[in-house]
Amino acid sequence: MNEYTEPTRREWLFGAAGGLGGLALGGLLADQSAHGARQSGLHFPAKAKRVIFLYMTGGVSHVESFDYKAALYRDHGKTISVDNWQGKAGSYSPYLKAPNWGFQAGGQAGTMVSDLFPQVRRMVDELAVIRSMHTEHANHYESTLGMHCGSWTFARPSMGSWMTYGLGTENRNLPGFVVVAPAEPYAGAQTWASDFLPGAYQGTRIRPGRDPIPHVQPRGPGGQLQRLELELLGEANRRHLRERGGVRQLESVIRAFETAYGMQQAAPGLFDLTQESQATLDLYGVQPGESAGFGWQCLIARRLAELGVRFVELIDTGSSGNWDSHANMADHVARAANVDRPIAALLQDLKQRGMLDETLVVWTTEFGRTPYHEQEHHPGREHHRHVFSSWLAGGGVRAGTVYGASDEYGMTVAENGVHVHDFHATILALLGIDHERLTYRHAGRDYRLTDVHGEVVEDLFA
Q1: Which end of the chain has fewer surrounding CB within 10 Å, N or C?
Q2: pTM (2 decimals)?
Q3: Residues 110 and 198 in one domain
Q4: How far apart are CA 365 and CA 140, in angstroms?
């Protein structure tokens, strides 16, 4: 006969509350009392309440998306001189390579957008396109980390973590920071981790599919037994906390259990798309019963925004099968077709519902792709950190504009460069946060998302 052994505290955490312990230990939500759910910004009035961050994995070609270069078509096949090839200093003479697709002017603004993105082009009057982005590294891992965390060498808290740390949440039943991703990008889960910030601020990942959030279904009807279990567990945790004089990690666990219970009430309704009209499903290209695809991700993002989630990130694909078109730029066709219609639908839907004015939509990638190649007839392009394109739309953004410029071939910044640190500082400012004052004391110094850098690009503000 087996002898009874008292369960350990860890076993309690994972076994109680219907298996939600593992989810809770991941850190779901900061208590509103820590900073409070702020509607008007942390340091000054906010122009937006929330962010939907659209991340395209692998490096989208700027000269084949949002940075039209007539000279690149004209001078196709000519050689130029460069002093660096994929991070290696030297003297090189690569061949200019014309874009594979044409560009057309979109909207009343007349902003030139590639034929890869005809639906986004239709919404270009809502965009502020930045054609002068630049970053620190030409490798995927480092630049993915940099775009998310403001650090290219060490893991640091993600932008979504910083934002929820500063602003709190509007819905205690849902995490303040949610990532909807079918696969992990190059830097993995570090891209939505809280690092040295309390664990409650890290992102909660939703995986498209039949079971987007594991263990979220209540264990029994009514949930009364589960509520009693949580109350018992909460009292044990609070006693444990009192005996140890207050431990931040345990406080996060206690609040996370409460949020996990709340998620069981809110999450099933979140994924019930039968509440959406057929016209809305058609707009996003989502079929009835579908639970995956970028259209589904965008629709879930809108629903999360409606429910008060502060920061929603959508990642289109993982560290393979992405925009990293070394071998053949024709790969961009499938990648663009996957996201073009859903992104345009998201912008249109937010605007129709009166949500776009208070929702900042961000589109970016880790870097661009070379406007040239060392082989004259090579069909692909390499990594290019020196200049690339991103855009903003919605809350507080000067819509229908273009900011910054690359040179005639899209090789380097020609005017009004926007470093990733500047990009982050600007996003925070639109949410009412001064990037220099949002700090956290760790290892003897004050850290911030932008480190010791960053300038707010106020010309992007309406």
Answers
A1: N
A2: 0.88
A3: yes
A4: 10
